[in-house]
Amino acid sequence: DVQMTQSPSNLAASPGESVSINCKASKSISKYLAWYQQKPGKPNKLLIYSGSTLQSGTPSRFSGSGSGTDFTLTIRNLEPEDFGLYYCQQHNEYPLTFGSGTKLEIK
Amino acid sequence: EAQLVESGGGLVQPGSSLKVSCVASGFTFSSYVMHWFRQAPESGIEWLAYITPDSSNTHYAEAVKGRFTISRDNAKNTVDMQLSSLRSEDTATYFCGREMTITAVFEYWGQGVMVTVSS
User: Fold this and answer.
1) What is the 3-state secondary structure (H, E, C) of chain A?
2) 3-class DSSP state for residue B77?
3) B4 closest CA partner among B33, B34, B25, B32
4) What pLDDT shows up at residue A107?
5) For residue A96, which residues of chain B lie inside 8 Å, CB to CB?
6) Does the pLDDT at position B102 exceed 90?
7) Which residues of A touch B4 (CB under 8 A)?
8) B59 DSSP β-pair partners
9) Do A91 and B103 touch (CB under 8 A)?
10) Cβ A98–B107 below 8 Å, yes or no?
């Protein structure tokens, strides 16, 4: 199975700042990495897939980069609604696997 | 707008069985691969299984193969997961998800249903 190592586990930032979340795969997954946002009581939200393709409705302040084993989610000009949990998921092969999550909190 | 709503969770004893269901609305259910996931308390998301639109193919994570069974009813817009031989480590919130066509990413998720396995 492809192990996904996500970092940091916790992140505190203020509105208007920029943050980056990293995801490292245990082997190459080409470009096939997705990012989701999770908030209590709401369905998970797909933000980005195939490394850098923004899902329809994802604000342009979100961007994804990387290929192979190393990927990054960057959020610029943080908005209050961006705080929550973020997960990466490799979609290159089965079993599909997720990172352990990053909790983005307001500083 | 597509919507997925799970049901059927609860408290069960180790070794018992339970069926969780997901009803879909707002899209042509019979056209999409559907998946089940789970998330243990304070833990990450684990993919469990998928089923193709015509039920011809299913695939399971090793952790649940032989104990869990995914099925669907396109007439009722439902996808089910039968959970058997339940263990304490199966305690989790169970989610269904709709796969975005041939991508293995998930544009729609349910809010989940809690299953607690405890004596």
Assistant:
1) CCCEEEECCEEEECCCCCEEEEEEECCCCCCCEEEEEECCCCCCEEEEECCCEECCCCCCCEEEEEECCEEEEEECCCCHHHCEEEEEEECCCCCCEECCCEEEEEC
2) coil
3) B25
4) 84
5) 47, 104
6) no
7) 43
8) B50
9) yes
10) no
Give φ, ψ of B2 to 5 degrees: -65, 145
Phi, psi of B31 (to 5 degrees): -100, -5
Provide the Cα torsion A76, A78, A84, A87; round to 10°: 0
φ/ψ (deg, to 5) at B86: -65, 145
CB atoms A98 and B103 under 8 Å: no
3-state DSSP assignment of residue B85 = coil
Question: Beta strand B68-73 with A19-25: parallel, antiparallel or unpaired?
Answer: unpaired
Residue A79's pLDDT band (cuts 50, 70, 90): very high
Helix (H) or strand (E) holding B27: none
Closest-approach residue (CA) in chain A for B96:
A43
Cβ-Cβ contacts under 8 Å, A43 against chain B: 4, 108-111
DSSP letter at B61 equals -
What is the identity of the amino acid at A25? A
* Sign of the CA dihedral with B98 first, then A95, A62, and B95 last: positive
Q: How is residue B57 annotated by DSSP?
A: -
3-class state of residue B103 by DSSP? coil
Q: CA B65, CA B118: separation in Å to the nearest integer?
A: 21
Q: Give residue-wise pLDDT tens across range B77-91.
A: 999 999 999 999 999
- Residue count of chain B, please give it: 119
